[in-house]
Each structure stands twice: as structure tokens, then as C-alpha cells.
Amino acid sequence: MTETRWNQSNHERIDTSEIQQRRVVIENSHGEKLVGVLHDTGSTETVVICHGIHSSKDRIPMLTIANVFESAKISSFRFDFAGNGESQGSFQYGNYRREAEDLRSVLQHLRGENREISAIIGHSKGGSVVLLYAAKYKDVQTVVNISGRFFLERGMEWRLGKDYFNKIKENGFIDVRNRKGKFEYRVTEESLMDRLTTNTHEACLSIHENCSACNRSIRIRQIHKESQTVSN
């Protein structure tokens, strides 16, 4: 499909006729199928975009990021973590480290197609995931965290309700509903503890330690909008 867009930064027309979007299915380490979309500009340089909690690759932030890289003629890949969007698996409230392994499967697949991963970008929960990935694997030069929560033990009352810890201890789970009362997802004690035991600060320190042993430094970008509440 041919389309012409405006690049608002320099008011130039962008011809997208050479950009191809291709649906890609990748199997993770648990045998689940992860579904993603490759924005192929013809360049093997590729950035990978990770979504936030209970979200998907098709939400506006991920589409916007992909479009920005299209404008720069850089390929990108946005995908659904297991249990989200079109991907197989069950949604879990925690799963930070497991989602980092999903990201690992994606990067290995793309590198198998001779793509150079120039950056991993995470929005909201995805921001925490890319930091955990970088701390463990240190094989991506640029890591971008957009509005990822740093202290994961904070910010849960508005989503889970007051006294959520005692309630989940008593019942084994909490059902999260939207403002209209419609069920969205279940938070189990196991998934809650996964979040509470994920230490983003420790991961960030590990990235710096790893950098001193690398031949090239890892650039970390943390982007936050102070005036906006981030639900992750």
C-alpha cells in the first residue's frame, strides 16, 4: 500500500511505498507463539519495541514509535508478549523476567534473519523489561525506557485496591475490573510476588557493571513525563 506522510519536524513528504509491514510469528522458550509486525524499510538496522502491561503492539505509543523510525528509514519490530494481544499464553500481572526472555527469543529470531538490533525500546512495563534484558544479556547498544516504573512495589493500590496484599493472601487472587466493572484480568499471589521481587534498581546497577567489561558502552535513555500518571 502506497502512502504519503508529512514529517512534522522538517515539513518534508515521506514516501512509504517502499516500506513493507509483515506479520511475523516467533516461538518463545516456552513453546508459545509470539506475534509481531516488522516495519521493513529496506534497512537491516532494526529497533525492537515493547508494549506495557495488559497492552499490545497495536496501541498508539507502539505505532507512533514505529512510524517515527519509518520516517528515518530505520526498520522496527513491535510484538505482543505472551498472554497479550495476538500472542499465545496466559496474561500474568508480573512476568517481568519471563517477558525479558520473550524479548530474547525475538532478538535471536531477528538476528537469525541477519538484522542488526540497534536499540530496544520499552514503554511503561516494557521499559522495565528492556532494563532487565540489558542487565542479563548486555548485547544491545542502546536501551530506551519510556515511562517505565522504577520502584515496582509502588503504584499498585489504584489498580488492586487498598489492603490488596492482605486480600490476595486471604483469597489467593484479586480480579481487576475497569471503571464500568468489567473483568479485565486476575492477579494471583504468585504473579504479585513476581512483581514485588523484581528489582529494577539492581538491574540498572548491573548494566553499568557489565558495561565496564564490554568493548562498547551501552547507552541507556530514560524518558518520563512528570505531569502524567503512568499506569504500569
Automatic annotation (TrEMBL):
InterPro entries xref list? AB_hydrolase_fold, Hydrolase_4
Which gene codes for it? Answer: LOC108814403
Gene3D superfamilies, per this entry? alpha/beta hydrolase
Pfam families named in the record = Hydrolase_4
UniProt-recorded name of the protein: Uncharacterized protein LOC108814403 isoform X2
Domain Serine aminopeptidase S33, by residue range, is 45-167
